[in-house]
UniProtKB/TrEMBL annotation:
A Pfam entry, by short name: DUF87
UniProt GO MF annotations: ATP binding
Domain Helicase HerA central, chain residue ranges per copy: 10-74
Source lineage: Bacteria, Pseudomonadati, Pseudomonadota, Alphaproteobacteria, Sphingomonadales
Provenance organism: Sphingomonas echinoides
Residues passing through the membrane, by range: none
Alphabetical keyword list: ATP-binding, Nucleotide-binding
The UniProt record lists the keyword Heme: no
Taxonomy, superkingdom: Bacteria
The name this protein goes by in its record: ATP-binding protein
Length: 483
């Protein structure tokens, strides 16, 4: 299941959607000078995806707290709480899947960075059972992931940068999809920006920022000038979740606004200078009255109760019971997607199992239908091109290889598939790829190990072509070059 978020119109008037499921897997970077419409873009994305996915917003200026009035986001004013309480809020948020706005307004830069670091780290460190999909929006990301030393202590800078790096580099395995917005690409740490696969570039004027934006969009440097000419609220978009080629999007209207509103001209008061002087100095002779004390912040316990109350009002829907055939098809589809990922070859099964769990949650299957051991064997079979019929057509082959290590099962099944279908004998390169290595020597040693267990017999004819036979099954591959 997927969901298309309507972001606006392209130059031809056609709607341009963002694929929410793809966005969860590939992350987003938004860039534009002050006044280019970044906050408007983020608000459009959040409003149109509200109710489809949990939303967690780190808001340095308090612009997004108004989302709570219409969409039920819990606003947390970080200045009223300790760092430890903010971290506890984050853990509770992941447990109850509550959409929140962490309002950092009122804190100095060091306080904002310290608070955001604790909050993001707690989101990242949540128990595995709470790894539900969530959009994590960080506005003014250059504050929390600076490219160079900020005017804060080194300890705070490292903590904040480390938390942002975890969000963008490793958050996907935990269901966290980072969406970061910045005014200056040159001020944002490169290792954080580089992890985004989707880009929305708004108006910018400095040459260094235009050059980086053009590089990310795959444009030539001479084409970067058009970024300077973009109208307010228009962004160049590129990425698997939105478009395979750069496309200009005019962001659509939103239903909520910031607390301060946008700048606009209003008439000056119609009064004479003498009258204004009287107004200005009217109270100077009166005694100065002390300002009323600020309202007391709600205790942390009441915020916890609010989070739980929102979760109770909008509970996590019951996971639908799926029939075995549908569940088996979902597992096959998820495994195909993992095997099709070019980066998965070099990743161990334990790491890919986390990816498997997240992908299953994204299609509404929780808990994961395979345990780590079963997943390892299904992954090995998938790398050999076998996704279905493991309990039927391939039952004999699996039973024969039951004592093989999981990482070698895929190589045996690769040969078994070729032998059963009369295809050419797999090359050393194909065996190496299935095994997850680039070493042909290691691939030959794997085949030798399997052959030593009397599961395979290798024969090389006078022309140098190799064939393999599985004696117990009577299956033999067609001869082929071993290289």
């Amino acid at each position: 299941m997927t969901f298309q978020v309507d972001m606006g119109l392209d130059a031809g008037g056609a709607p341009v959607p963002i694929d929410l499921e793809e966005l969860l897997a590939t992350r987003l970077l938004v860039q534009g000078n002050s006044g280019s419409g970044k906050s408007h873009l983020l608000r459009r994305l959040l409003e149109r995806s509200a109710g489809q996915v949990q939303q967690i917003i780190i808001d340095p200026e308090g612009d997004f707290v108004t989302l709570g009035e219409r969409y039920g986001h819990v606003a947390i004013t970080a200045a009223d709480y300790s760092v430890a309480e903010v971290a506890r809020f984050a853990a509770r948020i992941r447990e109850h899947r509550t959409s929140v706005v962490l309002d950092l307004e009122g804190l100095e830069m060091e306080g904002q960075m310290r608070c955001a670091a604790a909050f993001l780290s707690a989101l990242f460190d949540a128990p595995r059972d709470h790894w539900f999909p969530a959009l994590v929006v960080v506005d003014e990301a250059q504050v929390f992931a600076p490219s160079m030393g900020a005017e804060v202590t080194e300890e705070v800078r490292r903590a904040s940068l480390g938390a942002m790096t975890n969000l963008m580099c490793r958050g996907r395995k935990r269901g966290l999809a980072g969406i970061i917005a910045t005014q200056r690409l040159a001020k944002l740490a490169k290792n954080v920006a580089a992890e985004a696969s989707n880009f929305l570039m708004g108006r910018t004027f400095l040459d260094i920022d235009m050059a980086r934006a053009a590089d990310l969009l795959g444009m030539e440097r001479r084409q970067a000038e058009q970024i300077r000419d973009l109208a307010r609220g228009t962004f160049l978009a590129l990425g698997p979740a939105v478009s395979r080629r750069p496309v200009a999007i005019r962001i659509g209207a939103v239903e909520t606004g910031s607390r301060g509103g946008g700048p606009a001209l209003i008439p000056l008061p119609d009064a004479q200078a003498s009258d204004m002087r009287q107004f200005l100095f009217a109270e100077m002779e009166e005694p100065v009255r002390p300002a009323p004390p600020p309202p007391r912040a709600a205790p942390a316990e009441s915020v916890f109760a609010q989070i739980e109350t929102v979760a109770a009002l909008d509970p996590v829907p019951e996971v639908p019971q799926r029939d075995p055939e549908e569940l088996a098809q979902i597992v096959c589809d998820v495994l195909r997607a993992i095997v099709a990922d070019a980066d998965s070859t070099a990743r161990p099964a334990a790491v890919l199992y986390q990816d498997f769990q997240v992908r299953c949650r994204m299609v509404g299957v929780y808990p994961a239908p395979l345990d780590p051991s079963a997943f390892s064997r299904r992954l090995a079979a998938g790398r050999a091109g076998i996704f279905e019929g493991l309990d039927g057509d391939w039952g004999e082959a699996l039973a024969l290889a039951r004592d093989l290590p999981d990482e070698m099962l895929g190589c045996f099944l690769l040969v078994a598939k070729a032998a059963r279908e009369g295809l050419p004998c797999p090359s050393d390169e194909a065996v190496a790829q299935t095994y997850g290595t680039s070493s042909l020597g290691r691939a030959r040693r794997v085949i030798g190990y399997i052959e030593g267990r009397n599961l395979l017999v290798t024969r090389t004819d006078l022309s140098g072509k190799r064939s393999m036979t599985i004696p117990a099954l009577g299956w033999t591959t067609a001869p082929a070059d071993a290289g």
